Amino acid sequence: MKIHEYQGKAVLASHGVPVPQGKVAYTADEAVKIAKELGFPVVVKAQIHAGGRGKAGGVKLARTAEEADQIAKTMLGMSLRTHQTGPEGRTVRRLLIEQGMDLAGSREMYLAVVVDRATASPVFMASSQGGMDIEEVAARNPRAILKEAVDPAVGFQPFQARKLAFGLDLPASTLPRAVAFMQALYKAFESVDASLLEVNPFLMTKDGALFALDAKVNFDDNALYRHPELRELRDLDEEDPLEVEASKFGLNYIKLEGGNVGCMVNGAGLAMATMDIIKLAGGAPANFLDVGGGANAEQIRNAFRILMADPDVRAVLINIFGGILRCDVLAEGVIAAVRDLNVRLPVVIRMKGNNEERGKEMLRQSGLDFNTADGMTEAAKKVVAAAGGRH
Question: Which of 188, 127, 195, 178 is nearest to 155 (CA)?
């Protein structure tokens, strides 16, 4: 789960990470009121779940109340397009009004804590090249990114923080503050079960003060049951409506760009293999929809309804391995969905496993025009042809 910058900064501040003063505004009047409270200049920052806002015009400096009012009116409701939003952009519905910082003589650096699947541990990263896309830094100069693997059993140690601070070439007088800053950052990461915590830029002012000038925090969805208060931070306006709808029924749906084959599978591994074989057959998947191992007929019906709501879908491939989800239960749900939703699109079904023959018999006796396949290759070829041929 992603959250906005102002929410991320509140999480960091609650764990002792210094952040600039600021408040969220939903109207231009609120923005002006907050700006006056903070004192000018202030920074007006569009709040969307995407990076690159500054380059796209989503971060502006206001020196007067009139400027704050005009900037807020321009930003609120605008469609902000960055390299992470895609061409459709994201509608700005809220703004962070933040105290302006004197950047003269300051240094902008980068800090982050991420989960490294290769080492099965958190990794604390740092770079002296902050304030820019870290992907560009990594591509241009990988050595500019410093890394410290963290043993989950012992946590992030002070010597590791000092090592990173030395690598950033921080003045000796700021080392105690830098170590405390980094340890507070890791404490926040660990306490909220984050999957990503990024500060870019990590600012050191000319007098040696340290601030998280920006904050990106993503939570591990599997751990949210431990943090009911964090669930309230979710902004459904920033998520794909079909993904939100799928989550209500315990389904995992991800919209993909440029595809026209709707995919319904059970299990992430099978989903990846299904998408690969569709591409191999010359088609392109329109989505990743995993109904899970324990889906029932009602969930199958809802999954089908979500697939049908995507205007890009021209044909549907159902690829199910009957384990906990029996093939006859799948067939029951699919038959009900096709009848209730009056589905007119071609549907190709490949099922293997528990009650396979019973499921296939139910499909045959339904009187509906299902196209079945015994193997994944056959199923992929059939659905690609039904969707209009090679993509």
Answer: 188
198 in catalytic set = yes
Q: What are the tens digits of pLDDT across the range 122-154? A: 999 999 998 767 778 878 888 889 999 999 999
**Of the listed 5, 98, 198, 332, which one is catalytic?**
198
Catalytic annotation present for 26: no
Tell me the C-alpha distance between 98 and 176, whole Å: 26
Q: Is the pLDDT reported for residue 293 higher than 70?
A: no
Asked whether residue 391 carries a pLDDT value surpassing 80, the answer given is no
Set 110, 253, 332, 356: catalytic member = 110
Residue with tokens 């590791």: 160
The burial of 231, by beta-carbon neighbours within 10 Å (0-12 exposed, 13-18 middle, 19 or more buried), is given as: exposed
State the pLDDT confidence band at 325, using cuts at 50, 70 and 90: confident
Q: What CA–CA distance (Å, rounded) separates 313 from 315?
A: 6
